């Protein structure tokens, strides 16, 4: 099967790994061309298609359709294949709950993992202790919500009894969080999360293909 399009990104972008997992579940192929952040995303050609110069960015095979924003790309790829009704939900209530979790993953997990990584790992923003502490508190609160939804490890999936975009979105957000930020201390309030993530990875070969082995940090990143 010919690729449905291209997705532009830097390496090991969890948002893109999520999209590629969805594509694989739907039997679709997406090309991932070589791409250098700070160079390729600043060219006139790229900015003409994606004015903010951000990734991930998707372009259809014939060049007639473009998308930015990871969640929009994930939904699109989920919606154009045979797994659409499972991944996105078969009725309005289920679709709404799945969308709720996808938004939550971006706004409550990723949004509270990014600040410390930008300040400490990538040195792209000035260090701010108040922001660091607030991000930790908000991330821990988000983990508690996931724990509650998993019912102490009794549930394998967040919505219904099968894999959906809700799980793929939360998994991809947690993948980065647990590597650098959600440490042993933070996960005390959400002890089911590790088992949830390992269970998904074991059960879904498409996840294993696109995500490397899980890493659970003992101590969150700190300013030296």
TrEMBL record:
Q: Which PANTHER family match?
A: ELONGATION FACTOR 1-GAMMA (PTHR43986), ELONGATION FACTOR EEF-1B GAMMA SUBUNIT, PUTATIVE (AFU_ORTHOLOGUE AFUA_1G17120)-RELATED (PTHR43986:SF10)
Cellular component annotations (GO), alphabetically ordered: cytoplasm; nucleus
Source organism (scientific name) = Cladorrhinum samala
Under the heading InterPro entries, the entry gives:
EF-GSTs, Glutathione-S-Trfase_C-like, Glutathione-S-Trfase_C_sf, Glutathione_S-Trfase, Glutathione_S-Trfase_N, GST_C, Thioredoxin-like_sf
Q: Pfam families under this entry?
A: GST_C_3, GST_N
- What protein name does the entry list? Glutathione S-transferase
Give every GST C-terminal domain span.
91-221
In this protein, which residues make up the domain named GST N-terminal?
3-85
Entry's Gene Ontology BP terms: translational elongation
UniProt record similarity statement: Belongs to the GST superfamily.
């Amino acid at each position: 099967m010919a690729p449905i399009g291209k997705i532009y990104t830097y390496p090991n972008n969890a948002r893109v790994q999520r999209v590629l997992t969805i594509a694989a579940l739907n039997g679709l192929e997406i090309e991932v061309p070589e791409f250098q952040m700070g160079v390729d995303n600043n060219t006139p050609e790229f900015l003409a298609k994606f004015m903010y110069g951000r990734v991930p960015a998707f372009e259809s095979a014939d060049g007639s359709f473009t998308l930015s924003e990871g969640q929009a790309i994930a939904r699109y790829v989920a919606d154009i294949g045979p797994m659409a009704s499972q991944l996105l939900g078969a009725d309005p209530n289920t679709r709404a709950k799945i969308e709720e979790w996808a938004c939550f993953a971006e706004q409550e997990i990723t949004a509270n993992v990014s600040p410390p990584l930008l300040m400490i790992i990538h040195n792209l923003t000035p260090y701010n202790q108040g922001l660091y502490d607030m991000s930790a508190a908000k991330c821990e609160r988000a983990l508690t919500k996931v724990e509650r939804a998993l019912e102490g490890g009794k549930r394998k999936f967040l919505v219904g009894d099968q894999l959906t975009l809700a799980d793929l979105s939360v998994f991809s957000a947690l993948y980065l969080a647990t590597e650098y930020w959600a440490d042993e201390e933070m996960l005390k309030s959400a002890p089911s999360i590790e088992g949830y993530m390992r269970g998904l990875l074991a059960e879904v070969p498409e996840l294993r293909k696109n995500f490397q082995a899980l890493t659970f940090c003992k101590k969150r990143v700190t300013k030296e």
